[in-house]
Write a structure and sequence with these properties.
Blueprint (H helix, E strand, L loop, with lengths): L1 H27 L12 E4 L5 E7 L4 E5 L10 H9 L3 E5 L20 H14 L5 E6 L2 H9 L5 E7 L16 H13 L1 H15 L7 H11 L2 H14 L14 E6 L7 H10 L4 E5 L6 H4 L1 H10 L1
Parallel strand pairs: 3-4, 3-5, 5-6, 6-7, 7-8
Antiparallel strand pairs: 1-2, 2-4
Helix pairs in contact: 2-11, 3-4, 5-8, 6-7
Amino acid sequence: MKMVKQIVRIGVVLLVLVVVGLPLFYSVVPYDFPELPPAGRRLPVGDGLFVNAIDRGEGPVVVLVHGLPGMGSDWQRLTDALVERGRRVIAYDRIGYGRSDGRGSTDVQDFTVDANARELVALIDNEGLEDVTLVGWSYGGPVSIEAALNSPRIGRLVLVGTGGPDSDDAEPPPSPGVIGDAILRWVGWVPPAGAALQRVVSVEAFSGQPQPDWWITNLAANFATPHTRTSWVAEGAAIASSGEFRAHELAVPTLLIHGDDDRLAPLAIGEYVHAQIPGSRLEIVPGGSHMLPVTHAGQLADWIVAF
């Protein structure tokens, strides 16, 4: 019995060292994070907030809305392909990510799809853009849908590996809860644990397919910013309390592009959202993962330009 108690004590001490000691250690010992990609333009989106935006090319305007997490540089291959095809491309870091401002809040209700959509509409309005082709990827899909319902400046909508329900009675993904939230925050405080999680999630995002060298580097740089970690946790929690999914109200031409091997947003979501949007078109990429803007940039650019 005495030996059992000693083992339990040792276990408790080790647990405390891991749970408390590691965050304290990395709070005082520098960790060599990679640098964020170069800054672009700072664009106002209301409430004194500014986003960082890559703005390249000339011609009809395409605005790219990244997922959760993410930043504008995630679109670099598709940006290059669209610029080569005569488009002006604006790819921005959503509020709370990359080089954009943080929200200055920890209230989950400030991290909703609606909040992101309002900021996107403000960006389009402030830039005086017209007849915009709006491209939303993953979580950026519902954000783009909501923006398109609230802005006459959006002429067409492209949804790539969109998030959303997969049936009429689909339940929203569960909130991580207090314990899950604490674990996610702990991972954010311990860089090696965060890096390991990033690698695991990236394998799933690419469906086990090869990843470009810059992907993990940029992901690590993004998560090195405190507001990215906060936004990632809070937006994930806010999804569970999201309001009505209003894709059926869309009146703009809509193209959906989805991989049939998407492990993060399965094809069933794309098929359901396609069925909800009147007159929409669905293109399925055989063997395509969740990372189509990275792995199939040229094909996506051709579809977007033709659309």
